[in-house]
Structure prediction request, 118 residues.
Amino acid sequence: MSDRDISEIWGQLQSMSRVVTSDYASLAVSSAAVDLSNATPALPANAIGALITVEGDQVRFRSDGTAPTSAEGHLLNVDDVLSFVGANFREVLETIQFIRVTGDATLRITYFKDSEVG
Prediction:
């Protein structure tokens, strides 16, 4: 994803006046599927959205309650950005799981919250 694409996502967020940054986290992704409760820090209780970037190697994800495998799930490449903004994505954030494809990876996560909820 280019710097322009990231800028467009940030522009979307800024246009939604009630959405503000909640927290920042990292998530190690290896050979067992992990969800955002495994991140450091874990998924905040007030998070309604997230911006997730991929470092190190490819990962796969699923958000339907089934764990991905190294061969099954949506593929994310290094430097890809997964964006859950523009609506309340709490349910997706609670169910999404990630697994590495070959080598270990790290996800960098910025969470967003509704400023009027807390």
Q: What stands out?
A: Residues 3-113 form a domain with the Jelly Rolls fold (CATH 2.60.120). The two ends are 31 Å apart (CA to CA). The first helix runs from residue 3 to 15.
